Each structure stands twice: as C-alpha cells, then as structure tokens.
Amino acid sequence: MENNQDSFEKVIPTAWMVAYRRTFSDIPYSIEIFEALEEIKKKNNYEDIPAELKKPQLAPQFEARHKLLDKLIYQTNAEQILELAAGFSSRGLSMSKDYKFNYVELDLAPVTKEKQQIIQEIAKEKWFEVPESLHFVSGNAMDFESFEKGLSYFDKTKPLVITNEGLLRYLTKDEKAKVAQNIHKVLEEFNGVWVTSDISLRKIFSKENEVMKDHVEKISKLTGKDIFSNRFETEEEAKDFFENLGFSIERHSFMEVYDDLTSPKTLHLSEQQVKDVVEDAVVYVMKPTTK
Ligand SMILES: C[S@@+](CC[C@H](N)C(=O)[O-])C[C@H]1O[C@@H](n2cnc3c(N)ncnc32)[C@H](O)[C@@H]1O
Fold this sequence. Notes:
With 291 residues, this protein is of the alpha/beta class. It has one domain (5-288): Rossmann fold. 49% of the residues lie in helices and 14% in strands. The chain has 14 helices and 7 strands. The protein has helices spanning 5-9, 13-22, 30-43, 59-76, 91-98, 109-125, 144-151, 173-189, 202-211, 215-223, 227-230, 235-244, 263-266, 271-278, and strands at residues 80-84, 102-107, 134-138, 160-164, 192-196, 247-253, 282-288. Helix 2 (13-22) runs antiparallel to helix 3 (30-43). It is globular.
C-alpha cells in the first residue's frame, strides 16, 4: 500500500459518506453541511460516490459515535478541543458557536478548504458570524508539525481534549502508533485526554458487512486502504496496543447513547437492527500514564 499524502487523500470521499448518514439524525447543521457539500460537488464536477456506498443503513452507528463523543467531551469540562480528521462534521461549529469552545479542526488541505467555505456559507445563510474560536488547520495527523500548527491556538495552562472519529481504521498499525505517539507527546505538555471511537475491532467490521454486503471490501477498494489488515482482532489486542503506547484507558459503549438516537425512527429500523450496528462499538477516553 502507498504511504504518502495522495494515499491519504483517497480517504476523503469517506467523509462525504459519514456526512450523508448524519442527515438522518437530529445532529445540528448536518443537513446544511451535506447540502452545501453536494453543491460543491456539482460545481466542481467531482466524481460521484459509487451508488452501492450511498446507503443510509449504518446511520445509527455514525449518529451514536458522534453523540457519545460529544457527551464524553462535555464531561471533561475542557474548553479547548483539537479534532483530528474532522471531515464534514458539525461538532466544531456547534461547540465553538454555542459554548464558545476554542476549537481546532485538523484535516487534509482539500477538506479544510471546502469545510471553511461550507461553514462560511451556512453562517451567511443563517445570519450569524463564523465563531472566532473555530480554526481550520490543513495537515496530516501523522506529522507532529501539523499538531504544532493546531496547538498554537491553545492555552497550555488549560485542559485540552484531542478527539477523532473515523480516522484510525484507514491507518496501518504503524501509522496508528505514529498518531498515538503524536497525541501522547501533546498530552504530556497539556493537561488533557484523548477521546476516540477509532477502536477498529474485527467484530464491528463483520457486523458492517452483515448489514451492507461487502461494505468493508468496497470501502477498502475506494480508499486503497486495507481496512481488514488494519483491524484489531479483539478488544484485548486494542487495549494492549494503546496501553503499550503509554495510555490508560476508560472504556465506553456506544449503547450509552442508544436512547438519544433519532435516525432509527427516521429510517424505520427495529431495535435489533440498531443494536447490530451499535452494541459492539466503543469509545476510549485515554490519558498518558507517564504524567
Ligand atoms: C471517515 S472520514 C471521517 C470524517 C469525520 N471525522 C466524520 O466523522 O465525519 C475520514 C477523514 O479522515 C481524513 N484523513 C485521512 N487521512 C488523514 C491524515 N493522515 N491526517 C488527517 N486527516 C486524514 C479524511 O480527509 C477524512 O476527512
């Protein structure tokens, strides 16, 4: 597999897919962001996402992931957030606008460019100013220099949350370790935690494939990333991986936000259909053990 900037850029279309699935939920600005994204796609004649991947089935998983991360971030009481691979998520806009959090979104340059444009359009349409505390940084989560650009917006005397959803499954074990080491280095300086849903477990991928035939293989083909090889066989393997990199782990199940999900109703899904895509997934809240 390639290991350069272009190879990461092949992951960008997955951000569209997540943005699409969030439109079936009540997550603020999801519809506005997706509509603006569609306009950009049309205007620039971007290649369409393969029809077989334009499906809403996994929406409750993405809604739960978003809502659980929100909940755990709020629980830390931190008001400085660095989101890696933020894609077309609305979290940065919501948290900077409604709570005045100092929020940095880091993603690859083509994404941050479009994201900024989208946020400006939404702000104009809805008659509000783009929050001054929302910042966009073009970079690569593998490079510490990209982190440094983001950190320049933060106050070292205050707590920091680093978060990401939907990034690590595209990275090899060595690449995941590199991102984790970058985060560890930052959290040794700042008082804070890493909140991530990216615990890529074999059983989650198997469930995704049951719900959408060959989903993981199709995403692997689209992105050029060997998602199955990047996975953890068991949760023990995942825990060992992060603990060996110097983190302590607090584990949360996606089921903690089951009652908050709205997409199952929109999509007329049964309780079992929702549990199938939600109950095996977890978020880890991690802290450096060496602090
Ligand atoms: C599945 S999307 C998730 C986006 C967003 N977190 C969400 O949940 O909507 C994956 C994102 O990872 C970003 N990405 C891929 N490789 C990256 C890297 N090395 N550094 C930073 N971002 C990366 C892509 O540009 C894309 O926005």
